[in-house]
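Input sequence (202 aa), recorded before submission:
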Amino acid sequence: MSTPEPSAPPDRSVTPSNDDFSDLTGPPAAPTERSGAARVARWAAIGTCVAILALWAFVYIWAARAKPVDKLGDPTFAKQAQQVCATTMARLAGLPPASASKTNVARAAVVVQTDEELAQMLDQLEHIAPRTGTDGRMVHDWLTDYHTYLSNRVSYAQRLRTDPAARFYESEKQPGEQITIPVDTLATANGMNSCTAPEDLS
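Predicted structure, token format:
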């Protein structure tokens, strides 16, 4: 009687399945969802940039076409006024600089001469100024401001004759705005550069 061979011990090794490696690699990614969100964010950024550029383009185009507040509708007065003012400024250029005067009396005399020339200039401008409509109102206000500035100069010359330390003071159109600001603004807006306030007292 033969003795049976002992049976082999059972093989306890287990072949790993795909599930066993899932913990090593982490949860599966969702590439489709991520790429979709990235596209939305990218297009949103592009749309924002385009909107900003369009807004600024509109602002620049509108500003270029918009009529300046101090622009006269009819250029006739501006052209004539520029000629009148240019003639006056040429005569003023022939006067000695007030700042170069050796005494306060001599300085006051130069200021008086300048003021007389400016007064004649304003008289000529009033003769050719428009009388009606928006242009008439704007020019009237401008001439009024210029006369105010001239009265400031006259007052300064009077004080300067007796006070070597006298200083020139300008009236204010409104708080914090010297009267020469609206004078110069309308003049430059309409090509009347010679009609700006002289700077001989600065």
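Checked by second reader. The first strand starts at residue 172 and ends at 174.
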